[in-house]
């Protein structure tokens, strides 16, 4: 028989670690189970807007962050937890529910054959979440676009101003974000290529494809950034999202099991809200658990309250992010070309984008209900 934990968090990414820190702040111990052998730092940069900083303030780590770097954020969150609060190399295989003394207990079995039993299971295990599958949530789907992301390193300084720069082309959208005076995060989103082309995984081949194909026609300054890429940071993947209505009417919780972050609401990155909403999830979930824990059905009531508080907001952001990406890349399919550019330049930027951007003004509140 495996060990027993009150709260188990599956996944040690931003959502998982932030949830663990938030729970610690309200006096609830949790165990984070991460499938990798160390903290995952792929992706390089993460955009943190006002709503994310409010969430970080709520869990008490905002003042410890200066650089918006995924690795730094993960390390900062991990440092807030006890040394035994994260267990690496724990790849979840299955979940089984049992009723013991009229209460549900969940047995988590891992690929190495080990098991852990828990009262509460929070799936923060990404787009292809095992916990979301167990709940019955419909799988995330491809958006019709893909993205290459990486960090460029300039040992003598890059000379860019500390601001976001965007480059647009037909079916393409690229950007540069300074991280430090020597590091730049860059990305390019594009209409998906044939599957055989997107099977490329070698960093140098991906970099070459960006320079010779995807970013062809972009300004020389952007090409220079791509040439300075640290090959260990480059990734290329399809942009996935979950249909908004799946969150509104789907099974996002069951008993004392739920999901957060990308496991709940995978979205395209076009509003920069993936990491931000994951941090909001952590605060809202911990607050609901803190306020309901003393009642007889406390955990189940807390999970239900969390889902009801989050699903409408994140469903709206998923839809807004998809619309934003579609419009800014000039449309997809027969809407592309002249029609797509007209919609983008004369309708979307003038009337729609400012409204969508207001999602970053949201305040998820404090950890307590004071």
UniProtKB/TrEMBL annotation:
Residues 6-66, 74-318 form the FAD-binding domain. Gene3D superfamilies: FAD/NAD(P)-binding domain. The keyword Oxidoreductase applies. Keywords: Monooxygenase, Oxidoreductase. Pfam families: FAD_binding_3. It comes from the Eukaryota. SUPFAM superfamilies: FAD/NAD(P)-binding domain. InterPro entries: FAD-bd (IPR002938), FAD/NAD-bd_sf (IPR036188), MOase (IPR044560). Coiled coil: none annotated. GO terms for molecular function: FAD binding; monooxygenase activity. Belongs to the 3-hydroxybenzoate 6-hydroxylase family. This is FAD-binding domain-containing protein. It comes from Acorus gramineus (Dwarf sweet flag). The lineage of its organism: Eukaryota, Viridiplantae, Streptophyta, Embryophyta, Tracheophyta.
């Amino acid at each position: 028989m495996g060990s027993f934990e009150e709260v188990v968090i599956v996944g040690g990414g931003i959502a998982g670690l932030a949830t663990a820190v938030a729970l610690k702040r309200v006096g609830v111990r949790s165990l984070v189970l991460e499938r990798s052998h160390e903290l995952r730092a792929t992706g390089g940069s993460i955009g943190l807007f006002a709503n994310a900083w409010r969430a970080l303030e709520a869990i008490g780590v905002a003042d410890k962050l200066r650089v918006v770097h995924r690795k730094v954020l993960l390390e900062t969150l991990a440092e807030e937890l006890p040394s035994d609060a994260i267990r690496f190399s724990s790849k979840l295989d299955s979940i089984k529910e049992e009723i013991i003394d009229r209460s549900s207990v969940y047995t988590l079995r891992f690929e190495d054959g080990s098991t852990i039993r828990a009262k509460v299971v929070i799936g923060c295990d990404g787009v292809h979440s095992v916990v979301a599958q167990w709940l019955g949530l419909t799988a995330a789907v491809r958006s019709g676009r893909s993205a290459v992301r990486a960090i460029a390193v300039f040992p003598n300084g890059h000379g860019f101003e500390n601001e976001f720069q965007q480059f647009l082309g037909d079916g393409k959208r690229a950007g540069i974000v300074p991280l430090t005076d020597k590091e730049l995060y860059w990305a390019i989103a594009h209409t998906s290529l044939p599957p055989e082309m997107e099977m490329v995984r070698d960093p140098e081949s991906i970099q070459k494809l960006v320079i010779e194909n995807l970013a062809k026609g972009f300004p020389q300054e952007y090409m220079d950034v791509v040439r300075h890429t640290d090959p260990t940071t480059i990734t290329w993947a399809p942009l996935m999202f979950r249909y908004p209505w799946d969150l509104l009417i789907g099974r996002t919780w069951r008993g004392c099991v739920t999901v957060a972050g990308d496991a709940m609401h995978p979205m395209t990155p076009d509003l920069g809200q993936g990491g931000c909403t994951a941090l909001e999830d952590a605060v809202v979930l911990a607050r609901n658990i803190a306020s309901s824990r003393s009642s007889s059905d406390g955990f189940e009531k807390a999970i239900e309250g969390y889902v009801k508080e989050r699903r409408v907001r994140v469903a709206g952001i998923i839809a807004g992010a998809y619309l934003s990406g579609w419009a800014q890349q000039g449309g997809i399919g027969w809407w592309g070309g002249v029609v797509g550019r007209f919609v983008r330049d004369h309708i979307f930027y003038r009337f729609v984008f400012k409204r969508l951007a207001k999602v970053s003004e949201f305040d998820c509140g404090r950890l307590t209900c004071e």
